[in-house]
Design a protein that fits this description.
alpha/beta, TIM Barrel, 8-stranded parallel barrel, about 50% helix, about 15% strand, globular
């Protein structure tokens, strides 16, 4: 059983919902990424999405774009991100880590090399934003051969045929993008989520996490009532951006604890 599956099964037994925070590796400094990962766990994260910085993050809004720019200025690379996961695993071998990013850096490394290295360092899942399920068979075969869960996005505009395809290919969990637009966008409509999730469950047996546009504890709590996991990214990255190197770990931990408390009250 994978770490992701084990985590969601444990949460289901406890009648709790997953908190899935996101941060960009290398932001604000590569030396702070592993301490931030541990702070997320200590604050109550169940699964961590670790962003691989990329020069053209098309699905991300300005906040995460700036995080990628900061990380790239520090020389953060895909190999460096994998090394960070290896360092994190020296103290934590239970919390699932999902790499989230774009295809180019992986293509440059080679999918077989990438998948093998993911398995070596303890990556549990990979979400490649610009690899739709129709085009990902060969790439994700490498992941599955090494026991890495391919994670897919589903948007409000995803048609039924693609939902069925995602249901067939995905492992771990499915990430439902709760609104049209980029990460960090506003205008989250809870009624739309409440309408869509039951439709998705007709096809998808995996846990469903919801993200994009969740910016505070109250919204996280409301979303948690509708799905299996709450993904929070831009708001955490904003906390990093607004902090200095001396207080960033504490500030992020404080905010994530607020999310944890709210979700557990859902």
């Amino acid at each position: 059983m994978s770490r992701i599956q084990a985590t969601f099964e444990k949460l289901k037994q406890q009648q709790r919902k997953a908190l899935i925070p996101f941060l960009t590796a290398g932001d604000p400094d590569p030396q702070l990424t592993v301490p931030l990962l541990h702070a997320l766990v200590e604050a109550g994260a169940d699964v961590i999405e670790l962003g691989v910085p990329f020069s053209d993050p098309m699905a991300d809004g300005p906040t995460i774009q700036r995080a990628s720019e900061r990380a790239l200025k520090h020389g953060t690379s895909l190999r460096g991100v994998l090394d960070m996961v290896a360092e994190f695993r020296k103290q934590n071998d239970t919390t699932p880590v999902v790499l989230m990013g774009y295809g180019n850096p992986i293509e440059a490394m080679g999918w077989e090399t990438f998948a093998r290295r993911c398995a070596e360092v303890g990556v549990d899942g990979v979400l490649t934003v610009d690899f739709p399920p129709e085009e990902s068979h060969d790439a994700f075969e490498h992941l599955q051969q090494h026991g890495i869960d391919p994670i897919f996005l589903i948007a409000p505009t995803t048609n039924e045929a693609r939902i069925e395809l995602v249901a067939k290919l995905a492992r771990g969990y499915v990430y439902y993008v709760s609104l049209k637009g980029v990460t960090g966008a506003g205008n989250l409509d809870l009624s739309d989520i409440a309408h869509k999730i039951p439709q998705l469950r007709k096809h998808i047996r995996l846990p469903i996490g919801v993200g994009f546009g969740i910016r505070d504890a109250a919204t996280a709590q409301a979303v948690a009532k509708l799905c299996d996991g709450v993904v929070v990214g831009s708001r955490i990255v904003q906390e990093i951006e607004n902090s200095n190197e001396q207080n960033v770990v504490a500030n992020v931990g404080k905010f994530v604890r607020e999310l944890r408390t709210a979700i557990d009250q859902a």
